[in-house]
Fold this protein.
Amino acid sequence: MKSIDKRITIGERVFYFFNYLFLILCIIVAVFPIIHVVATSFSSSNAIASGKVFLLPVDFSLEAYNSIFKDGNVLLSLKNTVVITLFGTAFNMLFTIMCAYPLSRK
């Protein structure tokens, strides 16, 4: 049996290069805001107000998390998110099934 010789052409190499470059740029664009928000959440309010925070926390502080969990609104927000998600999914499934059934019959 012959072995299949798979050679990558110059055109394919160029395509793969630009494809990987595009995907890496997409990853950077998607991950950068998340890293920035995390760095901001662990920085002091003075460093945030003066614009010193970029990708690493400046003047490490947990005061933002302390103030969030102090008043208890996080659990209420989490409960609201779960309830809205469950009921929204149930209603969407119900209406999708109700619309899909007649469309599937002649």
